[in-house]
Amino acid sequence: MTSVTFPSRLGFQGRLVVLALALACASPNTAFAWDAATTHAGMTKRALAASRFHAVLAHQLGRPLGILEPLRLDLGTLDPDTARLLKDRLALLDPAGGYRPSADDVATSGAWVEAGAVLSMTPPERVRNHFFNPGTGRGLDDGPGLSGTVHAVRLVLDEGGATVRDAATGQAFSLDGMSALAWIEARQNDQGLIAFLDGLERSVSAGQPRERETALVRSLLALGGMVAVLEDAGQPAFVRNDFRGEFLAQGAGSAFERYVADRYGAVALPPAAHAMARPDLASFFAASDGKGLAQTTQQRFFSPGTLPDDFDIGAGDTSAVADSLANQSLKFPLPKVAGVDVAASGRTRYVKQDGRRVLAYQRNGNRLHFFLDQTVYADTARQWLPEVEAYAAGMVDYLLRGKVEIAVADHSATFTVAGLSGALETGAALHVFSERADGSRQEIAVRPLATGASVVVDVPHDAKKLAAFVRSRDGGGPLFAVGEKSLVVIAAD
Prior knowledge:
- The chain is α+β, with helices and mostly antiparallel strands.
- It is 37% helix and 16% strand.
- The protein folds into three domains: 31-141 and 176-264, no CATH class; 308-371, no CATH class; 402-486, SOR catalytic domain (Immunoglobulin-like), CATH 2.60.40.730.
- A hairpin with a 2-residue loop joins strand 5 and strand 6.
- The protein is elongated, with a radius of gyration of 26 Å.
């Protein structure tokens, strides 16, 4: 049970406020974002299966078993503080989930990505950076609720520098944050884009095998973290700025997320039918074509705090009048309410969109009440989860789109970059490495590289493997292209 220590200056009313929010933050039954141990892990597994992840690991990164390749996290190669923190976080993972590493810190490459998705939710305050309003580009913003409970807590505690999260767990927490896209790109995010690219680079360039393997593990953890942030854009509350309505109003977290976790667990989620192709990282969330995941989620689904307001029906009011009154109170332009049956009383009926039941309502006397129930949750989950997974699979393919093709003839190797989205950035360079029989590597060439051009490098006589990468940008944004090739023994002249 979580213990909460209250600052002595709080009065009775202030202590009640802090206790209520502390329980909301600390309760084991409270979910913030999709349930990490089941839904996020399961969606990420399905996204990997629908993506090119296995092929990239097997054919470009020299890991022949691909998604099943066992990889060891050697904490001894990390600085002590990083190693200790990472070990503590990994120890909290559920052993039954299939993604927690073994006692000697070994897991498959796919399991490391799943673990990264779960770890992106811990500690819970990280999730405040998973919100994204595609209309404004902003993240979680509690400005509209400042006259309520959170503002009261801030007034009570801020004069001494304490916060609600301090009271609950000894850490900082507030109901605002970076946008999800900004968080993915933020340098301080140890499971973001920079950590992913840094890890990939070191997985090719580090001198010793154990250093390269550990770097790859850390890159895969970051990949899982980014995928989980995108998956949260498929949860309506995260794109409709609805932390209060979804997570705090009922005092027990998200009823929708509990339904999905209970109904599907980690293994019964519907699979992704395909990988969604998008031109750049931002467009997976929002773009001018309106097909970003955050945009489509916001436009198709309600969340508990963004429902139509209840109202009274007059004796002569028609369905069209009821629809108009309901739509006048909406916080977002879509989805619209249409086809409300004002005659039915005492039974639950539904507003449908594209065959999905998106909103429940009842008429009790003259009062029309709108709500979400398990029927709505069932339709939403069944039809939308595969789409969320498709976007996640597409992000994996986007991040791993670059490829260095290596052709060896006689004592030279030709390197060509493929999989580009447009032209390479001016100043791009190809880094080439030679690996000896003992697994050690050294850089043997750094050559400028132009779009469509190839680079030829002499192969050292003792090379058992060649590896190369390009870290640059193309028309789709940040790019990491990589390739490895094992060699037959090349005899010395």
